[in-house]
Design brief:
Low-confidence stretches: none
CATH class: Alpha Beta
CATH topology: Rossmann fold
CATH superfamily: Vaccinia Virus protein VP39
CATH architecture: 3-Layer(aba) Sandwich
Radius of gyration: 18 Å
Oligomer: single chain
Shape: globular
Strand order of the largest sheet: 3-2-1-4-5-7-6
């Protein structure tokens, strides 16, 4: 194990965006699942958080961070903790890899303490870019291999395979069913075309979406935000009632 240069499985700027949402709250018990090689847990350590549990399917010998409670575990199964065990739960770029993502979401809610905070991220299927790609070509960004090369996706380790695009309102439902309410929606990067005509089209579609939701009185929960309409990944902060 080494405490330097832990390999991150996300692009630059992703973890800082999550930490900006997290802020500097009081210390508490933290769960990070799936934890990868420990890159995000390392950043939490550097901020002074010490009571951290990490779960992932990688072997303990491959986990790169010391001073952490790491357990090799398939989180497709019920999480190995009692109800209300954690003050903060992080699940970053994980649920899109699960064959059954929403039982996993329920587990995240179950192990969170009342008043605790959940940080969950996944590739954004509600962006303008995602809607246009799905309308014209039938796939969501970052899920193209699922359409073009499904056999290759099957041969990849589960942590490399995006197999479950997440529908925001369904995610919102299962969070609420677990007693957890979304309070903020963010992203790590806004994606807008650098081609003038495509950029104009994207802005026009975003205006239509916002006007339609406002005119019809639909609930928002952040779906008209810049993060939702142009974000690459969605990063959600939610609180357990």
């Amino acid at each position: 194990m080494t405490d330097t240069a832990v390999k991150a499985l996300v692009e630059d700027g992703f973890y800082p965006a999550v930490l900006e949402l997290f802020g500097n709250p009081a210390p508490g018990r933290i769960l990070d699942v799936p934890a990868g090689y420990g890159a995000f847990a390392q950043l939490l350590q550097q901020r002074g958080h010490a009571d951290i549990d990490c779960l992932d399917i990688i072997a303990p010998a491959d986990f790169q961070l010391s001073g952490i409670n790491y357990r090799q575990y398939d989180a497709a199964n019920p999480l190995p903790y009692p109800d209300a065990s954690f003050d903060y739960v992080f699940s970053l770029e994980g649920i899109e890899h699960f064959e059954a993502p929403f039982p996993f979401v329920r587990e995240l809610c179950r192990v969170l303490k009342p008043g605790g905070r959940l940080y969950l991220s996944t590739p954004n299927t509600f962006s303008v870019d995602a809607r246009i790609k799905y309308l014209l070509s039938g796939y969501f960004p970052r899920f193209r291999p699922l359409m073009l090369e499904p056999d290759k996706v099957m041969d990849q380790p589960v942590d490399d395979a995006h197999i479950s695009p997440i529908y925001f309102w369904q995610l919102n439902y299962f969070l609420r069913d677990g007693g957890v309410s979304i309070c903020r929606v963010s992203t790590h990067a806004l994606r807008q075309s650098d081609k003038p005509l495509r950029r104009w089209l994207e802005r026009g579609v975003a205006a239509l979406i916002r006007n339609n939701i406002r005119r019809r009185g639909f609930p928002d929960h952040g779906v008209t935000s810049q993060a939702m309409l142009f974000g690459d990944s969605l990063i959600l902060e939610a609180v357990k009632r």
